Amino acid sequence: MFLDLSLGSTYRQQNGSFGNHCSCHCPSGMEGERCGDDVSDYLSQNPQLAQWIESFRGYCESNKQWSARRKFLLRNMEAFSTVKPGMSSSSLDRLLSLSMVWANHVFLGCR
Question: For the XRN2-binding (XTBD) domain, which residue ranges apply (predicted)?
Answer without folding.
Answer: 53-111
